[in-house]
Amino acid sequence: MKFKLLIAAAALVAIAGTASAQIKPEEAIKWRQSGYGFMAWNMARIKMNVEGAAYNKEEVVKAANAIQAIANSGMGALYLPGTDTGTGWEKTRAKPELWTNKETLGKVATAFNKEANEMAKVAAAGDAAAAKDQFGKLAATCKGCHDEFKIKQ
Amino acid sequence: MDHRDYRLWDLPTRLFHWFLALAIVAASVSGQLGGGLMTLHGRIGLAVVGLLAFRLAWGLVGSTYARFGQFFPTPARIRAYLRGEWQGTGHNPLGALSVFCLLGVLIAQAATGLFANDDIAFTGPLYDLAGKARSNGLTAIHHLLSKLVYVLVALHLAAVAFYAFARKQNLVRPMLTGRKAGTGEPARGGGAVALAVALAVAAVAVHGARGGWMPPPPPPPPAASTPDF
Questions:
Q1: pLDDT tens profile A91-118
Q2: A9, A13, A151, B58: most buried by Cβ count inside 10 Å?
Q3: Nearest by CB to A136, which of B36, B119, B143?
Q4: Distance separating alpha carbons of residues B104 and B68, to the nearest angstrom
């Protein structure tokens, strides 16, 4: 009997342990917003280089690698159930459809990953014209998701 | 058959019309597709600013039927037109209403676009004057107005079709050739000086829309100054 109690207690502690290791909703919203904010800086860096007079390969490589890293970070884990409402750094602008329309979500997420990986590859090659072209394709995949799943203000 | 016709729309008015039509199509397509086309979208927007500023000036100094005063749709004129009593040349009062609506909405559309951002990598040339929060609000208006532009353009085309089939009046040909069949007072004025004035107004508008009077941005940091941490 004592032994059973012990097991039950251990199980409870284990459950409590996993529960505390779980992300809080407002943290999840903050982190995903931070991810997009950081990507915005890196998108602006690439844009400055592909549209400006001088092309700095190193800068574009750094920026493209950062975007690629975020794209492959498994950020989808931050879209916890119930976090279609809530406030991180600001009120979330994720549409509820993001949690229900898995098929479209998969499509836009895959497209973004593919173009982000390609952007890093193109940046490493160092051709300004190709980088500009790829930058446009990458930005289009951002829009692809925003149009479906981001609330317009 | 009577081949008499008279000068209705001057060349600058016609060029304005067709360039604007082209620009609206191009702006809609590039804005909807986004991505790498946003740079082009921004340039088209500046062209539209120039076209609209030109038309506003031309509405004051252009030739007879291009002038706003000539076709301003007063309620009395609209009532007379709806009763079938309107006897005039140029824009009829309902058409004039459509002209002013289109101009007004497009001015608002171009103006909000100058302050807009797309949450990705594009910002309008006057974005810095608004800041992110206000820019987001203006961007939302920009998106809403785009729907209104579609509605007004659809109405415009429907009206042209209505006059062509129901009233047997070809409105497209005068907008191409500048001449309308029949007899009427030919358009006068809108000479070289007026054209130069209107073009100057357009140039000033585009300069301002591009941020020509904004304080210059701080010089970019020297190349490769990003630290490696």
A1: 999 999 999 999 999 999 999 999 999 9
A2: B58
A3: B36
A4: 13
